[in-house]
């Protein structure tokens, strides 16, 4: 069941305004391999020789182009028709994601830009638009990409052909574009921090102020019942308010926490008044839930939770990293839940905000993982840090996110096992993440060679359950760096010791059928029976290792040349979902 103010297709469902206009659809498009567009002033008249369906990138069939050759510079243009009467409102242009650098012009005038392929950004374009009734406005976007490994790129290849587990690049606009209309004074963002133990919630408001006599009202409700309504005077850009959730004027009410079993969400309505007239109204929500770590266990709402996760790279055959529809996102979540998983590790991708919304609504736990760089130098450090901090702030309010994962398998920090500079970088990212969000665990280097990390995670694609069980029988050997696991990696980096953190196997399995195409981990299987036997054997070995408190299976779907999904790339089950579900639940219930 959706939240009360959910709007189908609205790109940012945790911060909803009713007054908006989608700019998805057909745009003019042009390649600029020689990078002459700015010099020749394409921002004044693009003369695009192609059409593209935004938000799908030119590399995808869904875009209408379907060319996978890398092009470093691409241009977009479309007409923007504004409402007949803006009534003094500001025009905000929003991009959910453009890979990698975006430059934006309105009616030929430069309006701003952004660097970072996975973070959302907004521009106030009011000063550049023609707001006369019926006037046409021209919106032009240049996207600059590269094959550099100093930019966060995740699973996007940096050579001309796919290799190993790296796939066709994503260039340009790959998530939704839209405009919304706001008063000169408006609410820019709200950071929501529920406190389960103290039965309260903290709101940190960021406002754009252009008026006096402003008042902000915050109303908390479930459905049609209002539980709390508080008001405060707005006299500065940043405001903070702590709200107790224990009583209302008409008597006490029962609090309900958010969990996979009961994903209760509280609706929030923020209303900004000027002289008692409404000038801005935003709808959001929160879940009252707590993530903590005690005695080697991860606790959800003060109760240990065994995490049954599945790895999800978020690719589709026709649209690559861009979901083909909101229904496709929901279908993936439903399939994950149907297979008995209670969570998902979003691998090397910052997913569409609507995916996280539906995880919030349906109760699916999420590990949010940053797309990796693949070099270590000052430029990579700066690029990574800037974008990661943007993402943590933007995703902070989602109750489904229970873990941050900035690094994976030493990608971008290849000598972290011994290199002090790379180790200090991981420490810095850990602490800056904690400075923004002290309430979620951070896994600094998922898979191996951990420095400081709230959870110790291991990747192991052993095919035989008995070998897996034997390998992890001696926790002191594995976690104390006396022995490598998976025959070549150590759990901890040199100079760092295991300090009793929870331990999880966060990649295993990767079983592929023998079809003669693509690859999986280990020997490919030739029958459903062989698949199920191997799947059950390795999963049981992990569950039978007492100090391991969760797992993440690789993976939900096939992705291009990697054919080790439980579903095919077009989401057809290889194994009946209920069979996978039975194995998962028999291990942990």
Automatic annotation (TrEMBL):
Coiled coil: none
SUPFAM superfamilies: (Trans)glycosidases, beta-Galactosidase/glucuronidase domain, Galactose-binding domain-like
A GO MF label: hydrolase activity, hydrolyzing O-glycosyl compounds
Domain Glycoside hydrolase family 2 immunoglobulin-like beta-sandwich: 186-289
InterPro entries, per database record: Beta-gal/glucu_dom_sf (IPR036156), Galactose-bd-like_sf (IPR008979), GH (IPR017853), GH2_Domain-Containing (IPR051913), Glyco_hydro_2_cat (IPR006103), Glyco_hydro_2_N (IPR006104), Ig-like_fold (IPR013783), Ig-like_GH2 (IPR006102)
Keyword annotations from UniProtKB, A to Z: Glycosidase, Hydrolase
Domain Glycosyl hydrolases family 2 sugar binding: 21-143
A Gene Ontology BP annotation from the UniProt entry: carbohydrate metabolic process
Superkingdom, taxonomy of origin: Bacteria
Glycoside hydrolase family 2 catalytic domain mapped to chain residues: 325-583
Tagged with keyword Hydrolase: yes
UniProt keyword annotation of Hydrolase present: yes
Family matches, as Pfam families: Glyco_hydro_2 (PF00703), Glyco_hydro_2_C (PF02836), Glyco_hydro_2_N (PF02837)
Family: Belongs to the glycosyl hydrolase 2 family.
The protein's name: Glycoside hydrolase family 2
């Amino acid at each position: 069941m959706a939240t009360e103010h959910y709007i189908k297709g609205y790109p940012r469902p945790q911060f909803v305004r009713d007054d908006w206009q989608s700019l998805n659809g057909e745009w003019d498009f042009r390649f600029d391999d020689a990078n002459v567009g700015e010099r020749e002033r394409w921002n004044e008249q693009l003369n695009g020789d192609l059409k593209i369906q935004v938000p799908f990138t030119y590399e995808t069939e869904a875009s209408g182009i379907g060319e996978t050759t890398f092009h470093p510079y691409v241009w977009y243009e479309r007409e923007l028709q504004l409402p007949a009467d803006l009534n003094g409102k500001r025009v905000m242009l929003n991009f959910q994601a453009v890979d990698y650098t975006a430059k934006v012009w309105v009616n030929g005038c430069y309006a701003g830009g952004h660097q970072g392929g996975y973070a959302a950004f907004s521009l106030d374009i009011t000063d550049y638009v023609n707001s006369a009734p019926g006037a046409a406005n021209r919106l032009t976007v240049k996207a600059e990409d590269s094959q550099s490994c100093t930019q966060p790129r995740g699973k996007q290849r940096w050579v001309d052909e796919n290799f190993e587990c790296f796939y066709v690049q994503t260039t340009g606009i790959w998530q939704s574009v839209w405009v919304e209309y706001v008063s000169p004074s408006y609410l820019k963002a709200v950071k929501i921090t529920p406190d389960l133990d103290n039965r309260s919630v903290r709101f940190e408001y960021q406002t754009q102020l252009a008026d006096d006599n402003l008042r902000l009202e915050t109303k908390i409700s479930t459905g049609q019942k209002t539980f709390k309504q508080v008001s405060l005077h707005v006299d500065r850009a940043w405001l903070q308010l702590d709200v107790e959730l224990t009583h209302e004027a008409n008597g006490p009410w029962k609090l309900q926490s958010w969990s996979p079993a009961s994903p209760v969400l509280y609706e929030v309505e923020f209303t900004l008044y000027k002289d008692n007239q409404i000038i801005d109204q935003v709808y959001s929500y929160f879940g009252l839930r707590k993530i903590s770590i005690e005695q080697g266990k991860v606790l959800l709402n003060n109760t240990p939770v065994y995490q049954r996760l599945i790895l999800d790279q978020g690719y589709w055959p026709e649209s690559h990293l861009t979901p083909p529809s909101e229904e496709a996102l929901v279908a993936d979540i439903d399939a994950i839940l149907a297979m008995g998983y209670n969570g998902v590790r979003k691998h090397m991708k910052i997913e569409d905000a609507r995916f996280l919304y539906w995880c919030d609504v349906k109760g699916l736990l999420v590990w949010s993982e940053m797309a990796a760089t693949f070099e270590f130098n000052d430029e990579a450090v700066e690029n990574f840090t800037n974008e990661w901090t943007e993402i943590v702030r933007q995703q902070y309010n989602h109750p489904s996110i229970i873990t941050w994962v900035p690094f994976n398998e030493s990608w971008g920090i290849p000598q972290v096992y011994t290199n002090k500079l790379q180790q200090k970088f991981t420490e810095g990212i850990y602490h800056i993440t904690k400075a923004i969000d002290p309430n979620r665990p951070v896994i600094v280097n998922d898979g191996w060679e951990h420095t400081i990390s709230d959870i110790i995670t291991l990747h192991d694609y052993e095919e035989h359950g008995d070998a897996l069980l034997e390998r992890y029988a001696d926790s002191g050997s594995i976690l104390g760096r006396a022995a490598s696991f998976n025959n070549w990696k150590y759990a901890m980096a040199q100079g760092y010791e295991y300090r009793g953190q929870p331990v999880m196997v966060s990649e295993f399995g990767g079983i592929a059928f023998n079809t003669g195409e693509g690859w999986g981990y280990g020997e490919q299987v030739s029958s459903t029976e062989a698949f199920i036997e191997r799947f059950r054997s390795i999963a049981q070995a992990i569950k039978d290792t007492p100090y391991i408190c969760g797992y993440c299976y690789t993976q939900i779907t096939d992705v291009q040349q990697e054919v080790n999904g439980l579903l095919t790339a077009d989401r057809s089950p290889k194994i009946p979902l209920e069979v996978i579900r039975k194995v998962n639940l028999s291990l942990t219930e």
